[in-house]
Specification:
Distance between the termini of chain B: 51 Å
Number of strands of chain B: 6
CATH architecture of the largest domain in chain A: 2-Layer Sandwich
Largest interface: A-B, 55 and 56 residues
CATH topology of the largest domain in chain B: Ubiquitin-like (UB roll)
CATH superfamily of the largest domain in chain B: Beta-grasp domain
Radius of gyration of chain A: 27 Å
Structural class of chain A: alpha+beta
CATH superfamily of the largest domain in chain A: Aldehyde oxidase/xanthine dehydrogenase, molybdopterin binding domain
Helix content of chain A: 25-40%
CATH architecture of the largest domain in chain B: Roll
Number of helices of chain A: 18
Low-confidence stretches of chain A: none
Shape of chain B: elongated
Low-confidence stretches of chain B: none
Distance between the termini of chain A: 72 Å
Number of strands of chain A: 28
Number of domains of chain A: 3
Largest sheet of chain A: 7 strands, mixed
Mean pLDDT of chain A: 97
CATH class of the largest domain in chain B: Alpha Beta
Oligomer: heterodimer
CATH topology of the largest domain in chain A: Aldehyde Oxidoreductase, domain 4
Helix content of chain B: 25-40%
Radius of gyration of chain B: 18 Å
Amino acid sequence: MNDGYNVIGKSVGRIDGKVKVTGQAKYTGDLRFPGMLVGKILTSPYAHARILSIDTSEAEKLPGVKAVITHKDVPSLKYGISPARWDENIFCIEKVLFVGDKIAAVAAVDEETVYKALKLIKVEYEVLPAVLDPLKAMDEDTPWLHAEYPHNINTEIHQDFGNVEKAFAESFHVRTDRFVGQRAYQSPIEPHSAISMWDGDKLTVYSSTQSPHYFQYYIARQFGLPMGNVRVLKTYIGGGFGGKLEPTGLEFAGAALAKITGRPVRMFYDRHEMFAHNRGRHRQYMELKTGVDKDGKILGVYANFLMDGGAYTSLGVASAYYAGALLTIPYDFANYRFDMYRVYTNLPACGAQRGHGHPQPRFAFESHMDNIAHDLRLDPIELRLRNARKPGTITPNEFKVNSCALEAAVEKARAISNWDEKRNNLPKGRGIGIGLGAFVSGAGYPIYRTNLPHAAAIIKVNEDGSSATLYTGAVDIGQGSDTVLCQMAAEAMGYTFEKMTIVSADTEAAPHDFGAYASRQTLMSGAAVKQAGEDVKKQLLELAAPSLGINVAELDCRDEVIYVKKSPEQQRTFAEVAREFFVKKGPLVGKGSYTPPKLGGKFKGAAVGTSPAYSFAAQVTEVAVDPETGEVNVLEAWDVHDCGKVINPALLHAQVHGAFFMGMGESVWEEVLFDENGKILNANLSDYRVPTALDMPQFHSELVDSYEPNAPWGVKEVGEGATTPTMGSIANAIYHASGVRIKSLPISPEKIWRALKEQREE
Amino acid sequence: MPEVLRDSQGSKHYLINLNVNGDTYTLAVKGNALLVNVLRDWLDFTGTKKGCELGDCGSCTVLIDGKPVNSCMVLAVEAEGHEITTIEGVSPSDKLDRLQESFIANAAIQCGYCTPGMILAGKALLTHNPHPTEMEVREAISGNLCRCTGYVNIVKAILAVADENPPEGGESA
């Protein structure tokens, strides 16, 4: 028997690979149920308007229409995903607050009839002045969107650690820069959909969701049902990236329509409606002030931010806190102040997008660091190494960082990108830049207050031991958690991956888990799975010990063989002992659950940013900038990640590829644009320009050795952390290539062209 | 021209024979029925995905006479008389096609929503160009958007199959 691991650490093929390459994988929108109706939501054409009347009579008369509902037909209880600021209704009651706000819904026999019926609903509006500029949202004479939130202030944060003013006074150099991030949209390729059906008082909802648990919680609350009467499950999910974490309205409207009609109702968004529903990345205005000593050591940082939240809270309270909270992770400094306003505007609501709140502030900080390096005539990597966080340290906002191999990651990125050579010798128009990043491996606290464990798992071994099923609430949205968790289960049981099956993300069939967000599942769901697997193994070993005539402590199980550690030739098979277990004791079931340790400080907002472990990354990008057109060509990129022990290397590197790709899109092209009336100008995938296969550079993903003591097998996150350094890395490469510092995202050809023109004319 | 039928409301329906994955299906469809909807809703070939219905994303790619086409941009009546291949027709038995195997082996799948379209675009390329360059692979799938993979492993998976194709000119290795 070898000493290493038998299942984890190997690039096994995805457990869902075959069904996905053959087209057999059914996504929510592919499901059909007898008598199923099609439903759609009517939305507002105005950014801000009072609803004077809604007349659904003509729509109701249309043959094939089975139900038309408005706010009168559904509970008026406000909901949201952030309990502190529940501010949404299933359908608008008095006012609409953005172009796309929900007014009514129709269920009919087919799509064509539904669309016809929507056009027959007559709504009279009194159009009100719209708040479209977040910078003016708090002005004295600006109208308020919500009476409960004076001056359109949704969230206000003031945090102060150490003494920033004293740090600035003692600094050798103090620099202030202002940056702007753009509105971006997750754009998963699978549109949102939900199918709702009732059986008496019991509601079942198939949904393309990242978190069946939160959907179950909010649907039950909205309809006054016990959680046990609401089953939320998913089949396959076509990507989420944060945009499928909160209820969409499809679930609520669908449930109401299904109740009235007594038939299953399939609701969906088309591509335009996805953009209108939004919940993507906030537009942020970011002022950074940093003081350094003469060696470039950071003494203090002041971050003064404002976020455009759009019409509702969504996950924005957390986004606002994350924006400042995670700035303290990659670099070690003692004095920090963070001020933030998240304001309401009459635009679609923003929420959590890959890297939640952090990528844009990271872009700002990484650009700011390069400016400081330039001021001090230091190499940007040298400045970063002088400030890089070390393991076993605590941030000023009281996050405890255990494992941290950031310095090693920076050094490796420097070496593999040939930084030292390229930084000084690239031809004109070419540039190389670096950005660092970090992210939580799961949030220390759930979204609503509860003492439920964060993750739980059950493993049931088949009666003859020839297969085992893992039941988990963890959600595979494409990142590969079903595969990785089955690897972890098999490793912990002493079993083989190929004999594992999984039932995941079904609130009835699988135990509770908060779902796929905050990069939490490998660590948190993994911890529960490991415990369940060890529970199975322990029960088997206890049964096998007497038959082998040895104390249980002398036994182990690997690769389906139970053996005596000191004399491995004394053995029995897993299957044989598992069968014996079933005959003598009944079902062989292992259980596990995970709750993180108590984390963080006691100040307001201290919970956001806490995590059992933090990942770190260094990214170097090489670009070419055309001085005539301002066009950017990303040529090559190198990512070095500190993500702890790796369970599946192939899936891990694939996460890095996707994270960089998404960050690159937001760096150069992606931005949701509006006209002067708050209507989206580019709500489709040709005008909202996501990168194609022709845009992706040569890409290198590498790792540094790392082990996290706070995690099962030492794992940490990767999927979001790898998107945090990208925008800064590309921005810095563009600056190196062109000599112009663009401080707003995306760094479009037009902005570069204008800046180059200004530079020439100076 | 296909035979025209009228329903009780007087709307026209066209009687068409669609050849999908080698089998013929006889259907009465409206003139505005999109091929993607007929494949998915009438024939249950739901491996053909819908992502945008505007011809932007490529999720609904099918092969028509071997060429990759966005089936949301094709009327069902136009598809009559042509050979349509959906993802369900790529491997006629339980044994996977080499390109399907390569997608699994190269971790080229994440959420899987673009995967059917990507595989069909890759199949079409390799059929007429068994030894594409990396740039030719990227061009061939540039009409298929993927939001998960950054395309890195998809390109790798297609090139891996090309490398196994017999060298041009037919000499044996």
